[in-house]
Amino acid sequence: MRDARFLPLTADEITVAANIVRAAVPRPDSIRFAALYSHEPDKRALRDGIAPNREARALLVDRSDGTSWDMVVDLDTKSVVRSEKVLEGASPVLTEEFMTIGARIKEDPRYQAALAKRGITDLTLVQIDPWAISNVPEVDTSDGRLCSSVSYVRHFEDDNGYAHPIEGVVAIADLTTGEVVEVFDYGVTPMNESCANYLPEFNQPLRTDIAPLTITQPDGPGFTVNGHEITWQRWRMNAFLLPIEGLILQGVEFRDGEEWRSVMHRGGLSEMVVPYGEVAPNHLWRCAFDAGEFGVGKLANSLTLGCDCLGEIVYMDAVIASEIGEPHVIHNAICIHEEDDGILWKHTDWVTDKVEVRRSRRLVVSSISTIGNYEYGFFWYFYLDGTIQFEAKLTGIMQTKSIGADALDEPGTRIGPNLVATIHQHHFSFRLDMEVDGWRNRVYENDVYAPPVGPGNEHGNAIRVRKTLAETENTIDGMVNPQAARNWTVVSSERTNEWGTPTGYKLLPGWANSVLFAQSPSHVAARAGFAKQNVWVTPYDPSQMRAAGDFPNQNRNQLGLPVWVREDRAVADTDLVLWYNLGVTHIPRAEDWPVMPVERAGFMLVPVNFFDRNPTMDVPPSEPVGCHAPGETSCH
Ligand code: NI
C-alpha cells in the first residue's frame, strides 16, 4: 500500500511532535527522546476508507528519575493520544548516557583500585564501553536505568583499545544518577600489550599494484529519486531510515506492462541480537539488542563518495530526532546506485552457433551503522528480473579477551600473543510485510521429497514438492532444511498467472541460518526467543512491529514473536507478515583481526510464477562498449 502516512516524520513534524510531548510532561527540561518516529496508521483502516490523523510515537526517558514513557501524539489535533509509563522494560540507551557514563566510572575509587591492581594508574586513555544491563545475572534490572561496562587500554589516542582488554573488571553504573553501583573484580589476567591497528600508518608498506577502476555512467544513473521515492527500471519503492530499525523499504512495486503490481508493503530489520558464547564472568552477559537497546538508525553513518559506494551515486539524507527533540539531519545516510551484475541470461544455439547474451544489473539501496565495536551494512538489491535480495555486511572489530599465556584451551580463537576473539552470533530479524498482488496472501512451506517406490513411482526417479499451507501461526515448521531444498512462498489468494498458477514470491534463505544457541537459564534465551526459529508467519497487527517487543532494554521476560504466536491466529488468505531470522554464527578467524573483512549474509525474495515467462525478454543486447581485453577496443 502506498500512502504518504507510511513515510517518516519530516523535520517540521519532529518539532511539532516534540512540542506536544514537552507540553504534556511534568518535567519538560529533563525529557529525552530515545526515539521519535512516525506512528504508522493501521492499514486496515486505510483499506476501509478511513483517513487516520498523522501520529508520532516517542520513546522517552525522564533524566530526572530514569523512568521510561511511551507516548503517541496526534500531529493534526496537537494532542496526546496515549501516554504510558513503560513497565516491562525501558526506552533504549541514550547516546547522552552512553557518552558520559565512562567519565563517572573513572572517578570511582573501587574502579581505580581494580585498575591499579593491574598496573594501570593513568586512566586518561582507558576506554570504557558501556553495555546494556539485561543479561548480567548478579544485577536486578527491574528498577532504574543501569548499564554494565568493560574497559580497554589505549596506549595512545588512535590505538585500537580492543587489542588491550582489561580482564575481570566490570563496573555497573546508574545511568540517571551517574553513580557507580558496583565494581566486580573477578581476578587479574595479564593484558595483551602488543598493538594491532588498522590505520594505514601501522600497515606499511601499502600495496602499489592496485589498478584504477572507474565506474562511469556518461548519461547519469538510470534511476530517479523524488523525496523518499526511488524509481528504477520496472521498480518503485520508498526508502527511509527510522531511529530503531534503520533502513526501511515501503510500497515496493513492480511495473508489469502498464500495471504497478504490489510485492511488499514494508520490509526491514525489526530487531538484532548479538549474544556472546564466552563463559568467564566478565563475558557471559555480553549481548546486544542493537535495534531495541541502542537504535540502528540513530547510529547510521554519513556515507561518502568513492569510499562507501562507487559509481554514479545519489544520496538520501535522513532526518532523525535528536535526543532533545530537534530534527537532526544525517547527511548521505542512504546510498543509491546501480551495479553491473554479470550475465542475466545467455544461450548459444549449437546448431547455428548464434549467441544471445544479456547483462544483468541491480539497483543498490544501502546504509551502514556503527554500533560500538561493530559495523553493519544493510544492502537491498533490486534486479531486472523481479528478484529482491538483502545482504548484511558485517565488519568492524571483534570482542576480545586477554588470556594467560599458558591458557591454550581457550574456546575463542587466538589472534595475538595473549589474546583471543570470542565466539558469538549475529541474529537479524527481518519483518517482511508482503503484499503479493494485493494484501490477501498465503504462505506455503515447500519441501522437495522422493515419493516411495511403488505405484506411481515404479522406477524410483520421481521428485515431488510437498506444500504445507500455513493455516495458522503454528502450522509450519519454520526451520531451514537444505536437504529438502526447503523454501517458503508467499502467494496471492486472488490472482493467478496466465497458466493458472497463483502469483507468488519465494523466500530463499542464504547460507547463514543458525538459530540461537543460548539456552535457559540465560536471560538472552528468553529475551531473544524470535531467534530460535528461522521463519515465522503472523497476521498483520500494527502493534507487532519488533520481534523482541518494543522495549527489550532492561527486560528479562519473553516478548515478541514467541508470545504473539501462542494465540495461533489464522494467517491463510489474510494480510500476513513474514519474519525471517538471519543467524550468522561467528567463529572468529585470525584473518578477522585487527578489523574484519566484510562478511556477507542474506536472503532473497524471488518471483515464482509471478510472471507468465522470463520478464527480461525485453532487455536489449548490450552495446559492446566497456567490455574488452587489454589492447582491444571491443569484445568482438
Ligand atoms: Ni561477528
Report on the architecture of this protein.
Residues 10-82 form the AGAO-like N2 domain. Residues 92-183 form the Copper amine oxidase N3-terminal domain. Keywords: Copper, Manganese, Metal-binding, Oxidoreductase, TPQ. GO terms for molecular function: copper ion binding; primary methylamine oxidase activity; quinone binding. The protein has a 10-stranded antiparallel β-sheet. Strands 10, 11, 12, 13, 14, 15, 24, 29 and 30 form a 9-stranded antiparallel β-sheet that branches. Strands 5, 6, 7, 8 and 9 form a 5-stranded antiparallel β-sheet that branches. The chain has 3 domains: 4-85, Nuclear Transport Factor 2, Chain: A; 95-202, Nuclear Transport Factor 2, Chain: A; 223-608, Copper amine oxidase, catalytic domain (Beta-galactosidase, Chain A, domain 5). With 636 residues, it is mainly beta. The chain is built from 7 helices and 31 strands. Strand 17 and strand 18 form a beta hairpin. The mean pLDDT is 95. It is globular, with a radius of gyration of 26 Å. It starts with 10 loop residues before the first helix and ends in a 28-residue tail after the last strand. The longest helix is centred in the first third of the chain and has 14 residues, at 11-24. The protein has helices spanning 11-24, 43-47, 95-106, 109-116, 290-294, 523-527, 561-564, and strands spanning 31-38, 55-62, 68-74, 79-85, 126-132, 146-153, 165-166, 169-174, 180-185, 223-226, 229-232, 235-242, 246-256, 259-275, 287-288, 314-321, 327-348, 355-371, 374-383, 388-396, 400-402, 413-416, 419-421, 424-434, 441-449, 464-469, 487-496, 502-509, 535-539, 576-586, 596-608. It is 8% helix and 40% strand. Residues 394, 424, 426, 586 line the site of nickel (II) ion. Residues 394, 424, 426, 586 line the site of nickel (II) ion (NI).
